[in-house]
Automatic annotation (TrEMBL):
Protein name, UniProt field: Peptidase S1 domain-containing protein
Organism of this sequence: Colletotrichum liriopes
The organism's place on the tree of life at top rank: Eukaryota
InterPro entries tied to this protein: Peptidase_S1_PA
Amino acid sequence: MDTSGPPSEDECARYYYGLPSGPRLVARSSTSPWAPPTSEDFGQSPKILKPVAHHSVASLWNLHTEKGSLRSDVLEVLKKQRASWAAIDMLRAGYLDHPDGFQTVLFISVVPNSTTWAQGHAIVTKVQSILTSHGIGDITCEVKESQVHRLASQETETLPQLLQAPLHGPYHSYKHQLSDQIGTSIASQATPAKEGTKCIYLTAGQRSHGTTTTNNKAAQVVFALTCRHVCLPMTDTAEYLPTCSPLAPLAPLAPTAQVMIQPGAVSFAKALAGIKTNNADLAALAFKVEHSPKLDPATRLARLDAIRAHVRNSQQVLDDVESRMALGSRAFGRVIYARGLDVQTTFLTDWALISLDAQRHQESLLNLRNRVHVGNISLQEMFMEQQRMVPFAQPDADGTITLANNVIPVSEMEHPTTLNVEDEATMIVGKRGRGSGLTWGLSSGIRSVIRCPSSLSHEVYSDEWCIVGADGLLGSAFSTGGDSGACVWDVQGRIGGMITGGNSANGAAMDVTYATPMEWILEDMKACGLNVNIV
């Protein structure tokens, strides 16, 4: 890029080729000419993002926010430049086929069409100078067009119980959304097409006269955790907590506003259409076999028997799905507590607790576990090179992992203790969400900083746990719309946090995923008078 003028249209459009959302470049501090390497498989080599391995900038950025600190100085530049910025991420960027050429970059995401090259160039020049003044000479700065998106899906348009039995087999994808596993689609009955994801189950003793009882199992209540913005409108920033009479403030809303359903409208329609198509395909196959002149009678009969067995199983699944046609039949609980949408300490509080309805679950609520479906895979075989010397979680026979009831400490997220084959500190994480299903990611030890929603009455910034996709494939993303609320966990089965949003140019696939550490969420709940435990 010629530093005396803006980058070419070709560079702006193709500089981030390979990132899931394909953001546009505005400006960069690097003076190296743009000459992306080529690949036999992709033509232009795709660019990918990786976490920053051990670097002195981590502690400077994560722990120091006072005036004169690196973070404060960068934020001051953005304020003085009146930048319409959304997020700051610090990651390594490079090309898939050139693993030795990764460069650590401080990315500043700005609202599309809000920032000219001249404005962007002024920002990267000043930020580069700030980095140098803090003794950091190996990090460059780039401004790109991207926004922060909350990952609830967008709206378009005898009581059955959530299933508990093992769900392996060819119909798992349909029955999973009807199960009590985590990672399933949920929505408010008032806005059934705005879907998110069920995170984890928590227990708490019932409150009585200002005290909490946790040692009496019969007195315990069970909650499902998800994001507040999945359940309530973003314009509603009120608190619904034990000290605020949780039931009364919700009463003015529509009667269905408190009721949560599983699955949401879009996921339900997709499952219904899918199983109907499967039934039609089986019927067509049976007709073809029955009228095939090439099969002898014995072979024809054997094949028809096998197909009819599949038809019976498929019809049973269809019956299960069709029994939930009415929204009310998919209700599984109601929102009882929700933290006000604001920044507490350093992170945006965006959580809600759903009190579960025992009559809508086959399993006793106190026996629920945080089971997530990964399939019949070996995590050790998948990640032994990226994550050495750790006790990998092993899926049960039904393909689910039962997550541990302890959490990954934030200190370990920021200073991973495990190494990959190249002796780089690495933490592999996974999640199952309504939007993108099962995906794998890399945890970054450097916090991202986002500008908080415009619905808040004052401008505040939030620290976020930063995660990028681990596949290293063109267009791979750790999260998409609908994944808000999804639980993030490591290969040992420890719970890390809850997805709340992501950074993307198009609002679909996220280049960067943001999550709130579970350690912070549990501490915040305790501060609100909720003494909860992971089941």
